[in-house]
Amino acid sequence: MAKDYIVKDIALAAFGRKELDIAETEMPGLMACRAEFGESKPLKGARIVGSLHMTIQTAVLIETLVELGADVRWASCNIFSTQDHAAAAIAEGGTPVFAIKGQSLEEHWDYLDKSFMFPEGANMILDDGGDATLYILLGARAEAGEEIIPVPQSEEEEAIKKQIAKRMKETPGWFTKTREEIQGVSEETTTGVHRLYDLHKNGQLPFPAINVNDSVTKSKFDNKYGCKESLVDGIRRATDTMMAGKVAVVMGYGDVGKGSAASLAGAGARVIVTEVDPICALQAAMDGFQVTTLDEVVGTADIFVTTTGNKDVIRIEHMRAMKDMAIVGNIGHFDNEIQVAALKNHKWTNIKEQVDMIEMPNGNRLILLSEGRLLNLGNATGHPSFVMSASFTNQVLAQIELFTKGDEYQPGVYILPKHLDEKVARLHLDRIGVKLSSLDKEQADYIGVSVDGPFKPEHYRY
Ligand code: NAI
What we know:
By secondary structure, the protein is of the alpha/beta class. The chain has helices spanning 13-25, 28-37, 56-67, 84-92, 105-115, 131-143, 154-170, 174-181, 190-201, 216-239, 255-266, 278-286, 294-297, 316-321, 375-378, 385-405, 418-426, 441-447; strands at residues 47-51, 71-75, 97-98, 124-127, 184-187, 208-211, 247-251, 270-274, 290-291, 303-306, 326-330, 347-352, 355-359, 365-369, 412-414.
């Protein structure tokens, strides 16, 4: 049989397997899912398309889904984030995976297309950033003769349109059929969740979606504590620059910004924050950071990191005003936070993979990380396993919920109930030696909760 995977080098599988074995010891939530559901196999019959960074941690997620009975096909959601040894281990284990670190944008959409090619058709999506969902919904629009709504980046828009046209020619009606067969989608990140709420608002979301990002045990942990470890890791692996004493600007002080600012401060950098939201600006100030505008500090800072999930945050005029050898990177989902396209006609010198030096018209040079794509996954290996275990346990519970009870949900965007959020946290306590106190009945009654939780009302913000 022809091989049903595209990886850089299948010989890397043994190395990948060793790292997977280590990761399993740091992912207690996923291992608990295997213990709880491995026998009953609630995902039997699920044919899950995964579009999420193909890392070692994701490999543990994939093998968990398979152990719960699912058939899985996988693509990465970013051209630079794949760990080739992880992809090789998954391919060798028999799960089709299409992901290479440094793949082109055309390959990105082609590989995503390939990950949908179950002989019986896909029926579930596990998404990160919304590309898999978007591919099907835009394709179905195109088949209905409707306009393709714009996607965030112009480069990306061209590539996705090309891939949609190719699939429409090869298999007429495929998008519409696939859209009808998808029972639900679970979405990993803030940016993908924005896309889902937008689609729903415009009446264009045909199936239920679970917003995994807004489980407390996802966004308040992965986005924050994950970035706290992986941001500086990415900058160091890319540049080996001395962090202590440098002036670093973090744009955005949401969950990712909070983790990123803490990461840089922990390394000894002097951190400045920019924000548009007065609440987050006040939080940054009270956490001890100077808060000002990019224009004020663009000519004097050494390191610039965007964390906003917004577009055009660092613009060409900012980059022209930066000092020689300023380091510029992004940790938000898409590369359009930085106007990288406006640098294309400048002189680029590639230093090593995912690190470029760009000469500006005034002679100053910038070090650009991962061409503006998320640098913690492009220049390093993303978040550590332990925090990804919490995120991915939410993913597994969301897939089970949508696959087994999807018909109880109307199309729309949902978050997992609080008791499951608390369960995910609970599963991670033992590994780090946390001892939980407990309430007696009288205390529980006094604060109006049950002895076993949930311990907070829905409106509580953590
Ligand atoms: P968030 O919504 O909590 O935070 C974004 C913050 O940026 C908000 O406080 C907003 O007011 C601020 N902001 C928006 N436009 C701005 C501007 N022009 N200037 C300054 N501040 C601005 O979102 P979250 O969860 O922090 O996620 C941010 C991005 O990071 C998203 O794209 C998300 O998908 C991505 N992400 C990346 C991860 C990684 O490992 N690289 C992990 C988790 C999320």
